[in-house]
């Protein structure tokens, strides 16, 4: 019998329920996937709390890896037995098995384990578009990255090092600072002790950085703007502390003709060819060992409540997965 996590109302982690589930067979353009591992992402909490809309009752989770057990009518690009990974809609990755549209799937190389895939597909593809699509960064550039010891942060620091990009990263504790440094973060700022923007100016000889990558949102928005060089770009790609405030256009002018963007991964992997290029580059780096994926927390799928408590309390570093 298949099982899944579902929720019937938005709220705290306790709204999550572990239930038996009827999966059924795949329809046209679909396959049935048995999961070997499922990713745990901060974005999952947005759906659970209602920040991101979901038609209730709903499943949860947007990232998983496993093996195709059956294919539906008309499916020619995948076959039973294929190893696959995915990130994105529809919700429901917190499950032992599910039916998925083939448009969401990415074939997984043998060199990459299922738990590694579940820990990195969303984070890795996010890092890929941030570094390779958002801004024409070049070797020698310096950027500011918030949450440098998080799942995206650790991949970002390693990938940036390969590109010759200097990373100033923010973290909350000395322990997280050591983790970030060990993964290639060049300069670490402890945001609870130091004024981030002032420290960024010191580290850039007063210039500021051309790009800030901010997954925190409300708590860091003002600091991010103050850390930018004239005509710099703030990339708001997450809101772990809450949504950014309304943007005042005149403020951007006063602070140096700044730019702000709020990208979404879905828009950078919607095109199959672009998704293949980004995932291919990611898989090549990980498969060769140039980028290592740290799975620092593992949970049973029926322990999703505790996993969400840990995630929201900031008790996690690197990536987290549900192992099946």
Automatic annotation (TrEMBL):
Residue stretches making up the Enoyl reductase (ER) domain: 11-322
This protein's record includes keyword Oxidoreductase: yes
SUPFAM superfamilies attached to this UniProt entry: GroES-like, NAD(P)-binding Rossmann-fold domains
InterPro entries associated with the record: ADH-like_C, ADH-like_N, ER, GroES-like_sf, NAD(P)-bd_dom_sf, QOR-like, Quin_OxRdtase/zeta-crystal_CS
Pfam family, any one: ADH_zinc_N
CDD domains in UniProt: QOR2
Keyword NADP on entry: yes
Keywords from the UniProt entry: NADP, Oxidoreductase
Descriptive protein name: Quinone oxidoreductase
Native organism: Streptomyces endophyticus
Lineage of producing organism: Bacteria, Bacillati, Actinomycetota, Actinomycetes, Kitasatosporales
């Amino acid at each position: 019998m298949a099982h899944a996590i579902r929720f019937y109302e938005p709220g705290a982690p306790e709204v999550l329920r572990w239930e038996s589930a009827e999966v059924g067979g795949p329809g046209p353009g679909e396959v049935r996937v048995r999961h070997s591992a499922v990713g745990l992402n901060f974005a999952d909490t947005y759906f659970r709390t209602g920040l991101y809309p979901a038609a209730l009752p709903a499943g949860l989770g947007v990232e998983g890896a496993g093996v195709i057990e059956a294919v539906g009518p008309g499916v020619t690009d995948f076959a039973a037995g294929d190893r696959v990974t995915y990130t994105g809609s529809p919700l429901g990755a917190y499950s032992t098995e599910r039916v998925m549209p083939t448009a969401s799937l990415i074939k997984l190389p043998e060199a990459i384990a299922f738990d590694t895939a579940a820990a990195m597909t969303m984070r890795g593809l996010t890092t890929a578009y941030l570094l390779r699509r958002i801004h024409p960064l070049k070797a020698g550039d310096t950027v500011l990255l918030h949450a440098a010891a998080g799942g995206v942060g650790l991949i970002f620091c390693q990938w940036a090092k390969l590109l010759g990009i200097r990373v100033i990263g923010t973290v909350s504790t000395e322990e997280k600072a050591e983790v970030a440094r060990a993964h290639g973060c060049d300069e670490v700022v402890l945001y609870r002790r130091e004024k981030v923007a002032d420290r960024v100016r010191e580290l850039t000889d007063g210039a500021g950085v051309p790009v800030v990558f901010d997954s925190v949102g409300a708590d860091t928005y003002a600091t991010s703007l103050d850390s930018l060089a004239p005509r710099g770009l703030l990339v708001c790609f997450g809101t772990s502390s809450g949504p950014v405030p309304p943007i005042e256009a005149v403020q951007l002018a006063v602070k140096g003709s700044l730019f702000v963007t709020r990208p979404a991964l879905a828009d950078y992997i919607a095109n199959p060819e672009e998704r293949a290029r980004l995932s291919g580059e990611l898989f090549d780096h990980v498969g060769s060992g140039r980028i290592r994926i740290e799975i620092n927390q593992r949970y049973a799928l029926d322990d999703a409540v505790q996993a969400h408590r840990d995630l929201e309390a900031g008790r996690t570093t690197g990536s987290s997965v549900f192992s099946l």
